[in-house]
UniProtKB/TrEMBL annotation:
It comes from Candidatus Accumulibacter phosphatis. PROSITE patterns: HTH_CROC1. One of its GO terms (molecular function) is DNA binding. InterPro entries: Cro/C1-type_HTH, Lambda_DNA-bd_dom_sf. This is HTH cro/C1-type domain-containing protein. Pfam families: HTH_31. Residues 68-124 form the HTH cro/C1-type domain. Transmembrane segments: none annotated.
């Protein structure tokens, strides 16, 4: 809470220097009321909106929050239960994220992956890092890590096909080998058709160019 007050004070200094003191005073008033009412998250949100208006107004926060809420409700968990599961001292952060008032930090993405991404934690982290922290994701891609993560996600998707089919767990070794062989043949056929389609498209483009 003291940090929020300090940020609000700093905001006044910056805004006065840039000639937008009126707006800063309005924001400082909102921050003060939120702190007096015991809502530090709302106070921090007002500071962020003032300092980073473009970022705060994007739809990314809202979409991310809606996705997190949908996962929580599908799991039948309350906000307090999610907060306890990820050892969060202030569960109201979850509510603020779900309402699109604050961004989802990378640290929270990692924590929430343990709750909502148990079957595919890598995919969970990748999905929300892409949408909430594109600069970090871009850095990972430039280092080649992004491609490794993507390949891991795709492998998990294949595994999930098996995991989602209860009957598959009752297969004998011979039955599993037969289905695995059929699946491999189908996959190779699909890849061959893709290559053939790309070749035809490439040739058609060359003919039009001539």
């Amino acid at each position: 809470m003291d940090q929020v007050r300090a940020m609000a004070g700093r905001l006044l200094d910056i805004s006065a220097a840039t000639g937008v003191a009126g707006r800063a005073l309005q924001t400082a008033g909102k921050v003060s009321r939120a702190l007096q009412d015991g809502h530090p998250i709302d106070a921090a949100s007002e500071v962020v909106r003032a300092v980073l208006p473009g970022m705060a107004e994007t739809t990314a926060w809202v979409k991310t929050g809606a996705a997190i809420r949908a996962m929580r409700e599908a799991a039948g968990l309350t906000i307090a239960e999610v907060g306890a599961a990820i050892d969060l001292k202030d569960p109201s952060l979850i509510e603020a994220i779900e309402n699109g008032r604050i961004a989802l930090s990378f640290e929270l993405i990692l924590r929430l992956a343990a709750v909502f991404g148990r079957n595919d934690p890598v995919g969970f982290v990748m999905r929300f890092t892409r949408t909430t922290n594109p600069e970090l994701w871009k850095s990972l891609e430039e280092l080649g890590i992004g491609k490794l993560v993507l390949q891991t996600v795709r492998e998990h998707q294949f595994v999930n096909i098996y995991r989602s089919n209860d009957a598959a767990r009752t297969l004998s070794d011979q039955e599993f080998a037969e289905i695995l062989s059929f699946t491999q043949a189908a996959f190779e056929m699909a890849m061959a058709l893709r290559t053939r389609y790309q070749d035809r498209s490439s040739n058609a483009g060359s003919d039009r160019a001539e």
